[in-house]
Amino acid sequence: MKKLASGAALAIIAMLMAACGNDAGGNAGNAEGSGNSANSAAPAKTEQAEPATFKKLGDEPLTLTFYNTSGTFPDTEFKTLIADPIKKKYPNVTIERITTAAETTAEEVLSTHTPDIIYSSSSSHQKIIRTGAYEDLRELIERHHFDTSRIKPILFDYITEITKGKGDQIYAIPFNANQHVLYYNKDIFDKFGVDYPTDQQLTWDQVLEIAQKLTRTENGVHYIGLSVDNLTGLAKGLGLPYVDRETGNAALDTPEWLRIFELNKRIFEIPGYVTPDGTWNWGRDQFMKDQVVAMRVTWLANMVGPLEELRQQGVEFNWDIAPAPNFEDQLGKTREAQIHSLSVNSQSKHKDEAFQVIAEILSDDGQRILARNGRVPAVINPELEKEYGLDIPVLQGKSVQNVFIGTPLQEHYIHPYELEIGSRLTEAAEDLAVKGLDVNSAIRKATDAINKDVETLRTTLGQQ
């Protein structure tokens, strides 16, 4: 493969192309629709020609490898959103996915493979930072004139927050905003003669009233009115951290967390919600495959791609989307928007090419493909939201504009200890659901367990 041109050579080539009247063609650096955010880490790119590197490659083949460290990203979405669009625009470039056994950890994969592009969600950013696999993108952003001000502030600000005061590296570029909605099964509502959720955001009190009507057993089938991802999901409506950023200790002893524990307790106390055999944790499979959950509040990406794959397998049912509910005094806000991001491997031999692939995916053209296939764009361009879901069959006829009702919150700072202590919140939910603990006792028990874990983590991970 031919060597990449130097930064100076790239600039000269771009200037010559611009002088010859070449069109910017929706390049990721195009400032159109960028807004006035002050989060730009590099000069804004305007009237820039298509990446000179790809033009220099000509027909010479290049394969870049791709690995997903966390987050739901089915093969259908990988092909539709990344592999196929890049192949269409640059026929000589192939994006090849690294797939491993389900039980293999991201750390194990990155110790034996060198994917050029790393896809992550905020649930794995800190973990991957510890491996050293993320390249600091600041130099690549500057060299390729990537305009970060085009990215929605709640997404890019989260990325910069990860390393604030610790070197201020930029390890990732937001790929999409993984927002929350309320999915509901119309067939279950119809079966029991209950009105569907409205297109207006409901309060938790209103949703629980509906859930009580739909939690019942009929002809031997046990239906559950509501699934909310329990304490961790509910806490996202208030943007709550699990541990204190400064001390690393448990952050559950607050009025906000008390409110979350009390709400989850109310859900568990709906008659029939916890089954006689102690089943209490209802999720995606029960909504999508078993089709016994009437409403589920969760991330878009957790459901849209899998529902489309299920449709392709011939399994369909009558469901729709409503805005994510919240407390009455929080209406107008939904839950935290989880960050799904793209990064360059620090050990890649093709860093420039990998970054230019990322830049293409972040172009308006690339983000339009995301929007039309059920992902909320990372860039500021309201016109793309109008096209949301148009190209993915499973969203046809759905109330997709309900995705954009309510303002998503910026995701709370994910402390390096948070992933390791997340199981304590699952245990706390179980204590509320089946072990009869009151909310104050459950909070105290979880706090003690987290603080003990933190002492161990300070030894294994180091003082954070």
UniProtKB/TrEMBL annotation:
Keywords: Signal, Sugar transport, Transport. InterPro entries: Bact_solute-bd_prot1, SBP, SBP_1_CS. It comes from the Bacteria. It holds the Pfam family SBP_bac_1. Residues 1-18 form the signal peptide. PROSITE patterns: PROKAR_LIPOPROTEIN (PS51257), SBP_BACTERIAL_1 (PS01037). One of its GO terms (biological process) is transmembrane transport. Belongs to the bacterial solute-binding protein 1 family. PANTHER family: ARABINOSE-BINDING PROTEIN-RELATED (PTHR43649), DIACETYLCHITOBIOSE BINDING PROTEIN DASA (PTHR43649:SF12). This is Multiple sugar transport system substrate-binding protein. It comes from Paenibacillus phyllosphaerae.
